[in-house]
């Protein structure tokens, strides 16, 4: 069991790129993670990692052990899922990763409803704004905004994502309201630093994409921060409708140029590509998919 625990830590260290990140994901201390990998190296009688102050690199032996470790971990996960599938009801700990803004605004209601239906499941939601990160042992499901780069993960659409232009009434009172996406260049704007298209905002013109490069003096890497800056009247903001929905309802943001708005893929639920999903994972996946279909059209 000690060797298996050490193998899991070693694989996570390689995947995360550091002992610090691996320890955080596994819920252990950095020193314990380091000790387990060191003990594994002592037991095997080889060095698995070349360590420096700035990076970790696999040795030749480490590369071989890492590849086998990935397969062993997947087999264990599949075995656990098959065992759990014979239980009468979903139970256990479920970890869900989601982008900060979407999770903050929309995951509490369906998740608490799910937990009331399945009292033997405990849920931990991890809010993080990485553009894309593969699911590891610490996470059962991830919710990310698509389109996403190719991977071995299976995805299920949760809801469509439409991007539009917004501004506060205060800002619009002191400027000429834009009439066309090209007018955006004449305005101040708040830029979302994690946006996949880089320094462009994408609109649709006669069915064709129209990319506009805004003049952005303020860049924020979190959508909630972009919404707040736009509400404060700093300038135009290019936002998914789910992020701006509440502010529009409260009259704090005004939608602009709606005929040019662009659909930007879907919000996706990602999970491992394997035959047996644990009952707890499958139950949550089905529950939130149905919940969004019934309660929320974004």
TrEMBL record:
InterPro entries, A to Z: LysR-type_TF_proteobact-type, LysR_HTH_N, LysR_subst-bd, WH-like_DNA-bd_sf, WH_DNA-bd_sf
Which GO MF terms does the UniProt record name?
Answer: DNA-binding transcription factor activity; sequence-specific DNA binding
Ranges for domain HTH lysR-type come to: 1-59
Q: Which domain of life is it from?
A: Bacteria
Q: Which SUPFAM superfamilies match?
A: Periplasmic binding protein-like II, Winged helix' DNA-binding domain
Presence of keyword Transcription: yes
**What UniProt keywords are attached to this protein's entry?**
DNA-binding, Transcription, Transcription regulation
List the Gene3D superfamilies.
Answer: 3.40.190.290, Winged helix-like DNA-binding domain superfamily/Winged helix DNA-binding domain (1.10.10.10)
Gene Ontology terms describing biological process: DNA-templated transcription
| Family according to the record | Belongs to the LysR transcriptional regulatory family.
Q: What protein name does the entry list?
A: LysR family transcriptional regulator
């Amino acid at each position: 069991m000690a060797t298996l625990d050490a193998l899991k830590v070693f694989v996570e260290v390689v995947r995360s790129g550091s002992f610090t990140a691996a320890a955080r994901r596994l819920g252990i201390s950095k020193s314990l993670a380091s000790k387990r990998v060191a003990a594994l190296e002592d037991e095997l009688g080889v060095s698995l990692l070349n360590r420096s102050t700035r990076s970790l690199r696999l040795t030749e032996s480490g590369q071989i052990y890492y590849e086998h470790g990935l397969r062993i971990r997947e087999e264990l996960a599949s075995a656990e899922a098959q065992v759990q599938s014979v239980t009468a009801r979903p139970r256990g700990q479920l970890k869900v990763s989601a982008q900060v803004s979407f999770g903050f605004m929309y995951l509490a209601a369906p998740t608490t409803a799910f937990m009331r239906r399945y009292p033997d499941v405990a849920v931990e939601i991890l809010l993080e704004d990485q553009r894309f990160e593969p699911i590891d042992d610490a996470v059962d499901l991830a919710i990310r905004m698509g389109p996403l780069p190719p991977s071995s993960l299976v995805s299920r659409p949760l809801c469509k994502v439409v991007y539009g232009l917004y501004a506060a009434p205060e800002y619009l009172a002191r400027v000429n309201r834009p009439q066309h996406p090209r007018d955006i260049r004449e305005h101040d704007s708040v830029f979302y630093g994690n946006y996949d298209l880089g320094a462009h905002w994408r609109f649709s013109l006669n069915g064709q994409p129209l990319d506009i490069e805004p003049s952005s003096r303020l860049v924020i890497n979190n959508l909630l921060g972009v919404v707040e800056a736009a509400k404060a009247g700093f300038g135009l903001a290019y936002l998914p409708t789910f992020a701006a929905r509440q502010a529009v309802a409260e009259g704090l943001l005004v939608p602009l140029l709606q005929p040019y708005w662009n659909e930007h893929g879907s919000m996706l639920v990602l999970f491992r590509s394997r035959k047996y999903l644990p009952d707890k994972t499958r139950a949550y996946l089905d529950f939130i998919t149905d919940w969004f279909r019934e309660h929320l059209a974004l």
